[in-house]
């Protein structure tokens, strides 16, 4: 299995929540190629209704077995990246869990119930990296539909009490 990865930096936004149960919400705003000279959770910009932070660095790792998912994402017309993050302690900010170009992997990160998962548009530099990987490693696989075995209704019938088989 071939793999390749690209280093990225994640920008997030913290907004005041319109909810009596939480103070604020987090959402990813952008994923940019390369790593800036900034510490994680560095304040970038103050907005009228929130703040933007550099959340930290991540790696988008591509695997040759997942090229069909990347290809489908690229062919959607608006390719996306899925950003998974977690707020473990409100005063500590966010912890990046993953950044992926695979829609199935992005969806899988929602299953924990504790991750914040959202999409951002894929910038052209990252889209080019993903497209090159797909062009190099994608192998079209034929779809095989499995056929179910027909059940024998006599074997499924209940046996009379005391009869062993």
Q: Can you walk through the features of this model?
A:
The chain is an alpha+beta fold and 165 residues long. It has one domain. The protein contains four helices and seven strands, in the order ββββαββαβαα. It has helices at 67-74, 103-108, 124-137, 153-156, and strands spanning 3-16, 24-33, 42-47, 50-63, 80-89, 93-100, 116-121. Helix 1 packs across helix 3 (124-137). It is flat, with a radius of gyration of 23 Å. It starts with a strand and ends in a 9-residue tail after the last helix. The mean pLDDT is 89.
Throw out a few tags for this protein:
165 residues, four-stranded antiparallel beta sheet, 7 strands, three-stranded antiparallel beta sheet
Give the topology, please.
Layout: E1 3-16, E2 24-33, E3 42-47, E4 50-63, H1 67-74, E5 80-89, E6 93-100, H2 103-108, E7 116-121, H3 124-137, H4 153-156
Antiparallel strand pairs: 1-2, 1-4, 3-4, 5-6, 5-7
Helix pairs in contact: 1-3
Q: Which stretches of 5+ consecutive residues score pLDDT under 50?
A: none
Mean pLDDT: 89
- Our estimate of the beta-strand percent is 35-45%
In which order are the strands of the major sheet placed? 2-1-4-3
Give the overall shape, derived from the CA principal axes. flat
**How many structural domains in the coordinates?**
1
Tell me about the biggest sheet?
4 strands, antiparallel
Counting DSSP H or I runs of 4 or more residues, the number of helices is 4
- Secondary structure: number of strands: 7
| Helix/strand order | EEEEHEEHEHH
Category from helices, strands and their pairing? alpha+beta
Beginning-to-end CA distance, first to last residue: 48 Å
Write down the Rg. Answer: 23 Å
Share of helical residues? 10-25%
